[in-house]
Design a protein that fits this description.
Blueprint (H helix, E strand, L loop, with lengths): L20 H14 L7 H8 L2 E2 L2 E2 L13 E2 L12 H6 L25 E6 L5 E4 H7 L3 E8 L4 E11 H8 L7 E6 L21 E5 H5 L4 E6 L2 E2 L9 E3 L12 E7 L6 H5 L23 E4 L5 E3 L7 H4 L20
Parallel strand pairs: 3-6, 4-13, 7-14
Antiparallel strand pairs: 1-2, 4-5, 6-7, 7-10, 8-9, 8-13, 10-11, 10-12, 14-15
The structure holds the ligand Nc1nc2c(c(=O)[nH]1)N[C@H]1C(S)=C(S)[C@@H](COP(=O)(O)O)O[C@H]1N2 and molybdenum atom.
């Protein structure tokens, strides 16, 4: 997203074998049956040893992540192989730590436990809950989702979490609540990117959805991936995943969910309004001002695929946007994008 800098179309990364979803599912079954969740770490440690920042390796960012038992949601099937776990761990967007992709090199000091999520605003039941309690109290699901960054790279990931609607319903939104605002953490001593006095200095990261978008069954609060807790660089301990939207709509390392009456401002839209709109649904026909969105490049394999409208999730979300322009007063008076 760096302004004024063209995006590279190829990654200088070695190819790595991705996993067909069937193999992932069978492996999960095997691991569950044998109680061997730790086994999944072995190839990863081998790969991580070869990548080090000083004495800190990629493997260090993933060792010690607790396995998270979950139930596979069979509704979400993939049309492509899963992205290898190490690829999703070593190529990230997380501007609190770095404007480059090797975020993992900068997360060592980041403390993600204990962690609290606050739900506030136009609701009957304001609530602050620890992520520990969320993980033990919520029934966790595993969902295989496509993921698309606005920069035209993509991945396919087995996320673990639960529908955002569950928390919102428990909070009991008032009739006046029309939007949901999301806020990430602020910790300048642990997140080096939050000290930079440059154009990105709007911390903490903030995003927003309409209430119907937030209540959509696809909107997923994520606490894990690949059978384990989230690595720090992937937005530990809690992030939002909205598979029909560009990746930046889903805030990582979430601390706040607030129900509001007016369309909230968002981080990227505030910084570069003509490039990053409020809705930002994946759309091959709407080019970014600086690049095409017609195709995407899979992390790891480098395979190019045609971009799917709503990232292939139109049956779940199309109705939310029928006949609606971003400037529609029903969606409040934000800036167009
Ligand atoms: N707090 C926060 N959340 C964020 C970002 C960020 O910089 N800070 N980047 C966004 C962008 S642009 C993308 S593509 C995804 C990247 O998630 P990943 O690194 O796990 O692939 O996180 C999104 N959420
Ligand atoms: Mo992104």
């Amino acid at each position: 997203m760096k302004k004024l800098k063209a995006q590279k179309t190829r990654l200088p990364l070695p190819r790595e074998e991705a996993t067909p979803p069937e193999v992932w599912l069978n492996r999960r079954r095997f691991i569950k049956a044998a109680g061997l969740a730790g086994l999944g770490m072995t190839p990863l440690l081998a790969a991580g040893r070869a990548m080090a920042a000083g004495d800190f390796t990629l493997a260090d960012t993933m060792s010690g992540l607790a396995p998270l038992p979950s139930r596979l949601d069979q509704d979400f099937t993939l049309d492509r192989p899963l992205t290898a776990r190490t690829q999703t761990a070593r190529y990230n967007n997380f501007y609190e730590f770095s404007t480059g992709k090797k975020v993992w090199e900068h997360v060592r000091r980041f403390q993600t436990s204990p962690w609290h999520l606050e739900i506030s605003g136009l609701i009957k039941k304001p609530l602050t809950i620890s992520v520990r309690d969320l993980i033990t109290e919520q029934e966790l699901e595993e969902r295989l989702y496509r993921f698309r960054c606005v920069e035209a790279w993509a991945m396919a990931v087995p996320w673990i979490g639960f529908p955002l609607s569950r928390l919102l319903e428990a909070a009991q939104p008032l009739a006046s609540a029309r939007y949901v605002r999301f806020g990430s953490f602020l910790n300048r001593s642990q997140a080096p990117g939050q000290n930079k006095a440059d154009t990105y200095n709007l911390w903490p990261y903030f995003e927003g959805l309409t209430l119907p978008e937030a209540m959509n069954p696809l909107s997923f609060l994520v606490v894990g991936m690949y059978g384990h807790e989230l690595p720090k660089q992937s937005g530990a301990p809690l992030r939002l995943i909205l598979p029909w939207k560009y990746g930046y709509k889903g805030a990582k390392s979430l601390t706040k969910i607030e129900l509001v009456a007016k369309r909230p401002a968002t981080f990227w839209n505030t910084l570069i309004p003509h490039e990053y709109g409020f809705f930002s649904n994946v759309n091959p026909h709407k080019p970014h001002p600086r690049w095409s969105q017609a195709s995407e490049r899979m992390l790891g394999s480098g395979v190019r695929r045609p971009t799917l409208l709503y990232n292939g999730y139109q049956k779940y979300v199309k109705h939310l946007y029928r006949g609606l322009r971003e400037s529609d007063p029903r969606f409040g008076f934000g800036r167009k994008g």
